[in-house]
Design brief:
about 100 residues; alpha+beta; 2 domains; 3-stranded antiparallel sheet; 3 strands; about 40% helix; DUF6788 domain-containing protein; DUF6788
């Protein structure tokens, strides 16, 4: 993989604090997950598979949303997640373990 201005990117990252780098890492991971989901959805649409809107999908969540798991304070939660332009949006769905 070739980066445009890769040296500039490395120099910029080297100037970041550990908190900033952790934020960048989280964003990069979420972006990678989003791109992988987009690729899967595109592949499905090419196969002419049409998914029905899930019954538990809230009205304010678009049908293109996918479910993702986030870990917060050692607890795992389901979130609906989708993109609106350049922004990653999410809405709480519930705990992975209903006893939490």
């Amino acid at each position: 993989m070739k980066l445009i201005n890769g040296d500039k990117l490395v120099d910029t990252l080297n100037g970041y604090s550990s908190d900033q780098l952790q934020h960048v890492a989280r964003y990069a991971e979420e972006l990678a997950e989003h791109k992988a989901r987009e690729a899967r959805l595109e592949e499905k649409s090419e196969d002419n598979e049409i998914d029905d809107r899930p019954d538990d999908l809230p009205d304010d969540v678009p049908s293109k949303a996918t479910i993702t798991i986030k870990e917060i304070n050692d607890n795992r939660y389901y979130y609906w997640q989708w993109r609106e332009g350049d922004k990653l949006k999410s809405k709480y769905k519930g705990p992975v373990n209903p006893d939490q």
